[in-house]
Design a protein that fits this description.
alpha+beta, Nuclear Transport Factor 2, Chain: A, 6-stranded mixed beta sheet, 5 helices, 12 strands
Length: about 325
C-alpha cells in the first residue's frame, strides 16, 4: 500500500504508529540480545586471579561459601576427595586464624588458574593448607584444596611456618626465562630423578633449596656429619628415595613464565616393601610411611632460572595407597 493513497490526517497518524512499532521492536530486540548473548570476560590477568583468590580466602575465613562467585557446575575436592563446597575444612577453620606472614600466591594467567600456600588454625590446632582455583569468565569453576594436619608420620611446621623466600615473587630476567613447555619438562625431570635415583638428570644447583610443609629438607646435612650438606643431586644419587616406587599420576597445573614458576600436583606411591639403609631407624617406627603402603598427595612448585631449579616448595598429605587425585589426569 502506498502512503500517498491515504487521506492526509490518517496518513500522518499511520506514519507515527509505524515509527513507534519499529522503535518498540528495536528495543525488544536489544533487550533479547542482552539476555541471550554470552558474557565474554576479558582475560583474567595476575591482578584478576589474585583478587579472585583473596575473595576465596575471605569466604573461607568466614566459613561462608555463598560469598564465592561460582561458575555453573563448580567442583570442590579436599585432600583429593570430592565433597560439597562448604563442608570439611570450611566447617573447622578458626575464623581470623589465617597466617599473614606465611603465604605464597602463584598465578597462571594463560591457564586461568591461581594457587596458594598458607597456614591457619583448625579447632585451635595449627594446620597448613594449599588450594588451586580455576576461573571461567571471572567465576570459580574448580577448587582443589589440601590440608596438612599434624600426625606422627607427617612432617611440618604447623604452629609457626616460616615466610616464603622473596625469590618466589621476583621476576626472572627475560634472558633467563623458560617457556611453559620447558618449565613442565624441568619439573618432570625432577620427578624422573627421584624415580630413577639419578640426580645427574635433574637441572638443580648445589644450593637449590627445598621446603616441604614448612620444613627445609634440602640441602640435607649428611647423617652423623656436620660437614658439607647433601645437595638434592647427591641425595637422589644416594638412593635414599628408592622407597618411592613411582610418582604417578603427575599433573603439570600451571606456569608463570615471568617469575619462572611451574606448579604441579603429583602422587608419590610408597608400596611399603622397599628397605633403604639410609632410613634404617625409620623401620623401627610402626607409624613411619616406609613400613606400610600409602600414597602422598603433593602440591609441588618449582622456581627456575636459566634452566635450573633454584627453589622448591611443597605441601603434602598422607593418603591411602593408590588414592586417585580427584581430578582428570592429562
Amino acid at each position: 500500500m502506498d502512503f500517498q493513497d491515504i487521506p492526509g490526517r490518517w496518513r500522518t497518524r499511520l506514519r507515527q504508529r509505524c515509527a513507534a512499532l519499529v522503535l518498540t521492536g528495536v528495543l525488544v530486540g536489544l533487550q533479547s540480545a542482552a539476555v541471550a548473548a554470552p558474557v565474554v570476560a576479558d582475560p583474567c590477568d595476575r591482578r584478576c586471579l589474585e583478587s579472585l583468590l583473596e575473595r576465596y580466602l575471605t569466604a573461607l575465613d568466614a566459613r561462608d561459601a555463598s560469598r564465592l562467585p561460582l561458575a555453573s557446575g563448580a567442583r570442590y575436592t579436599e585432600n583429593t576427595v570430592a565433597i560439597p563446597l562448604g563442608d570439611g575444612f570450611w566447617q573447622t577453620i578458626d575464623p581470623g586464624s589465617q597466617s599473614k606472614t606465611s603465604r605464597l600466591v602463584i598465578a597462571g594467567a594463560a591457564s586461568g588458574q591461581v594457587a596458594y600456600y598458607g597456614a591457619a588454625r583448625e579447632n585451635g590446632h595449627g594446620v597448613l593448607f594449599s588450594v588451586r582455583l580455576r576461573q571461567a569468565g571471572g567465576r570459580i569453576s574448580e577448587i582443589e584444596q589440601l590440608i596438612a594436619r599434624r600426625s606422627p608420620a607427617q612432617i611440618g611446621a604447623f604452629d609457626e611456618p616460616p615466610p616464603f623466600e622473596a625469590a618466589w615473587t621476583e621476576a626472572v630476567s627475560p634472558a633467563a626465562r623458560a617457556s611453559r613447555a620447558e618449565l613442565a619438562a624441568i619439573a618432570n625431570r625432577y620427578f624422573d630423578g627421584i624415580e630413577q635415583a639419578n640426580g645427574e638428570i635433574v637441572p638443580v644447583t648445589p644450593q637449590t633449596s627445598r621446603v616441604e610443609n614448612g620444613v627445609r629438607t634440602a640441602p640435607l646435612p649428611p647423617e652423623g656429619s656436620g660437614n658439607v650438606p647433601m645437595s638434592i643431586r647427591a641425595s637422589f644419587n644416594s638412593g635414599m628415595f628408592r622407597y618411592i616406587k613411582s610418582i604417578r599420576p603427575r599433573r603439570i597445573l600451571m606456569a608463570d613464565e615471568e617469575r619462572g614458576i611451574v606448579h604441579t600436583m603429583v602422587m608419590f606411591q610408597h608400596p611399603g616393601n622397599v628397605r633403604v639403609p639410609f632410613w634404617e631407624k625409620q623401620y623401627q617406627d610402626p607409624q613411619s610411611i616406609l613400613v606400610y603402603p600409602n600414597s602422598i598427595g603433593i602440591f609441588e612448585t618449582f622456581k627456575v632460572q636459566a634452566g635450573r631449579i633454584t627453589h622448591i616448595t611443597a605441601q603434602m598429605v598422607i593418603l591411602p595407597y593408590g588414592q586417585p587425585p580427584g581430578w582428570p589426569v592429562p
